């Protein structure tokens, strides 16, 4: 078991070359922490890291998002390929712009209310039980309606994305390797997403439909040729 603590961060820093600086002083001004692929299974109290803006914790064994409420200056959070089943304890991160949660065990995208600056959300390839699909909490979608511009929901057994119509500023949608089937559902969505200029639907059943691509490009005023 490896827990991410202030002591661990200090031990992995270059403080030896900064004899005039105390550990506390160093931790207070640190902006980037990278502990990816370190067998981390829990996040301890890191409240001294007041200026932390980028946190890399991907490829670990973390099962719960905890002790990040202090990180009010965090803009980028990388938690992909962990053991997380619930998005929680992020609502105080008002400056968060990019959230990477791919490769976890999340069944419902929720708990993002209040993150009105979130521009990118990556939740691809959740490890779901056979037959289950990734779902969206309407409250979270409503909260992200004006901010979200990039959404990656690839490889999640999704068969309907009409609920995403509320994301009025969405510019890029990556939905590769899902179960999208009906062209009409996608036409409905494109009529709502007026700023969408890139959509990747590769390896969905709908791609086998006759002239599906031509139909969608005709419907969208912004998509142009960036439909895959």
From TrEMBL:
PROSITE patterns membership: LRR
Transmembrane segments: none
Gene Ontology CC annotations of this record: centrosome; manchette
Source domain of life: Eukaryota
Pfam families assigned to the protein according to its UniProt record, in alphabetical order: LRR_4
SUPFAM superfamilies assigned to the protein according to its UniProt record, in alphabetical order: L domain-like
Its biological purpose: Regulates phosphatase activity of protein phosphatase 1 (PP1) complexes in the testis.
Protein name, as recorded: Protein phosphatase 1 regulatory subunit 42
Gene: PPP1R42
């Amino acid at each position: 078991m490896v827990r991410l603590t202030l002591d661990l961060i200090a031990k992995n820093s270059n403080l030896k070359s900064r004899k005039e600086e105390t550990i506390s002083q160093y931790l207070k001004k640190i902006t980037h922490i990278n502990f990816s692929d370190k067998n981390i299974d829990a996040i301890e109290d890191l409240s001294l890291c007041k200026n932390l803006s980028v946190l890399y914790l991907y490829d670990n064994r973390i099962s719960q998002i905890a002790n990040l409420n202090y990180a009010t200056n965090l803009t980028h959070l990388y938690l992909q390929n962990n053991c997380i089943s619930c998005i929680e304890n992020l609502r105080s991160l008002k400056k968060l712009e990019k959230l990477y949660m791919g490769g976890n065990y999340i069944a419902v995208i929720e708990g993002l209310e209040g993150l009105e600056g979130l521009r990118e959300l990556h939740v691809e390839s959740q490890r779901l039980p056979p037959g289950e699909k990734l779902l969206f909490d309407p409250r979270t979608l409503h909260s992200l309606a004006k901010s979200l511009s990039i959404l990656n929901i690839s490889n999640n057994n999704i068969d309907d994305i009409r609920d995403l119509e509320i994301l009025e500023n969405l510019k890029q949608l990556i939905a590769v390797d899902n179960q999208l089937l009906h062209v009409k559902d996608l036409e409905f969505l494109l009529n709502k997403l007026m700023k969408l200029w890139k959509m990747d639907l590769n390896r969905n059943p709908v791609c086998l439909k006759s002239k599906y691509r031509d139909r969608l490009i005709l419907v969208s005023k912004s998509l142009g040729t960036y439909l895959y």
